[in-house]
């Protein structure tokens, strides 16, 4: 769960801090168009960054010695319940509902811009050559975020099956 959550936060950061920033700064793309490409991205990053920090804090609490990496997490249900129910759960549903329901529109808009806008094409090519991006194009990022919410039931089920 933690490993995949770290990867997910990394993907969200690349989308926001690399793609969105480049499109905003170098193409002067307005917020409406950026929201079309990446709906609720800031909300998603905030939700997942907080979730990951709570998981990491729990891991630190369970270290057997401060300078070791030896730990066994005894409790995680409270963090999961907070993340997927109540106010935070509602924000997750809203943010993912918006992001996922606009998936096709976002990918179509991206492909249209890539096909018809040379400046857009050049910026995307430049960004794709950055080592931090590592084969995470806009379409792949959108797909990964769309699929992420469906992975939690599987991850939680594995935790349940492997714990008392």
TrEMBL record:
Gene Ontology CC: plasma membrane
Swiss-Prot/TrEMBL keywords: Metal-binding, Zinc, Zinc-finger
Q: Which Pfam families match?
A: RhoGEF (PF00621)
Q: Does the keyword Zinc-finger apply?
A: yes
Name the CDD domains for this protein.
Answer: RhoGEF
Keyword Zinc appears in the UniProt entry:
yes
Q: Name one GO biological process term.
A: regulation of Rho protein signal transduction
A single Gene Ontology MF term assigned here is: zinc ion binding
Q: Specify the DH domain's residue ranges.
A: 1-164
Name under which the protein is recorded: Rho guanine nucleotide exchange factor 18-like
Organism name:
Notothenia coriiceps
Tell me the gene name: LOC104962804
